[in-house]
Amino acid sequence: MKNIYSLLSRTVLCAALAATGLVTPAQAEATRAKSKVSTAAKSEAQKPQVKSVRKAKTTVQTRSGVRKAAVVGAAAVVAAKPTYGQLYGLHAVEDPLDLKSSVALVLDQDTNEVLFSKNPSAVLPIASITKLMTALVVVDAGQAMDEKLTITDEDIDSEKGTRSRLAVGTTLTRGEMMHLALMSSENRAANAMGRNYPGGLSAFVAAMNQKALSLGMTDTHYVEPTGLSSRNQSSAKDLAALVKVAHEVPLLRELSTSREYQVALGRRQVNFHSTNGLLSNPGWDIGLQKTGFINEAGRCLVMQARMAGRKLIMVFLDSTGKYSRIGDAERVRKWITSNPAELNHNKIKVVG
């Protein structure tokens, strides 16, 4: 099985992924048509990456006759799971800024002028960027921010097995849940908001997809409100539209750019922090942001920020490396601030 991706053709791979339900046939076809991949690049993307080395244990007989577990050496190498962008060969597309994200888009918020684009129509998992739509649907529904919601067993992550400091039985207001979902990417908080929507979780997901259609986000599909599922997918151009609309909501601007927040969990006051370190950087003026990560999506980041006298929307998807999405954002900022008068002549559009 370890060589299955090298044995399958690009067409067969996309069809196989579609058949599993991880991507829809339309999304697989869209990505297949919009990505040009060299054979060498595909081989590189499919090389096993060492994620961790596990040491095997065996039992040994001691003098007392007790059998104990002993480490006998490195016995297993676990290969890192490739992202969808790697499987599609999107990282083979080079760009002048040498971004580590396989998908990127920078546009002027006021004019919709595209300043930088790289594979902007590729459809990929978006991880916790999903929570922007989750929050927007809750706001649209006019649900009371001071209503108390309680975490239940239904909010436990059965998709990836992630943990949370919000134990079952924790009760917070909807506003507090939204704050933690947008700032700290709290999955249980996001799921609880969806579960407490009129009609329940299924009605909430339907509302998410309906909102996406109303915004012209035709590449976008949601199956749950947290982003833990790789079936939550979108494109950079769709996410730019979402950021633009979300930025119009003062509450989403405030909560998403909060750097830390303290809530009462039982008798304890617990501090939560933002997942985006750029909020603490004085060189950035960020009006709205959201990060995301699951293995299938890589590191993701969307932002609205002011620089060089312009309001810009930035989207970075499928970035490789823990801090690479931050590095990509800094590369774009340096490029824009060092060439403010020349942007009209130096736009970068790289479409794979």
Tell me what you see in this structure:
This protein is an alpha+beta fold and 352 residues long. It has helices at residues 4-7, 10-20, 25-34, 39-45, 84-87, 130-140, 174-183, 187-195, 200-214, 236-246, 250-256, 324-338, and strands at residues 50-61, 67-79, 101-108, 114-118, 124-125, 148-150, 171-173, 233-234, 260-265, 268-273, 285-294, 298-307, 310-319, 348-350. It is built from twelve helices and 14 strands. Helix 2 (10-20) runs antiparallel to helix 3 (25-34) and helix 7 (174-183) packs across helix 8.
Q: Estimate the strand proportion.
A: 25-35%
The largest beta-sheet arranges its strands as 11-12-13-3-4-14
For the sheet with most strands, the description reads: 6 strands, mixed
Radius of gyration: 22 Å
Distance between the termini: 28 Å
Helix fraction bin: 25-40%
Summarize the structure.
The chain is α+β, with helices and mostly antiparallel strands. Helix content is 32%, strand content 26%. The chain is built from twelve helices and 14 strands.
Task: Output the keywords.
352 residues; alpha+beta; Beta-lactamase; 2 domains; six-stranded mixed β-sheet; two-stranded antiparallel sheet; 12 helices; globular; disordered N terminus
Spell out the blueprint of helices and strands.
Elements (H helix, E strand, L loop, with lengths): L3 H4 L2 H11 L4 H10 L4 H7 L4 E12 L5 E13 L4 H4 L13 E8 L5 E5 L5 E2 L4 H11 L7 E3 L20 E3 H10 L3 H9 L4 H15 L18 E2 L1 H11 L3 H7 L3 E6 L2 E6 L11 E10 L3 E10 L2 E10 L4 H15 L9 E3 L2
Parallel strand pairs: 4-14
Antiparallel strand pairs: 1-2, 3-4, 3-13, 5-8, 6-7, 9-10, 11-12, 12-13
Helix pairs in contact: 2-3, 7-8
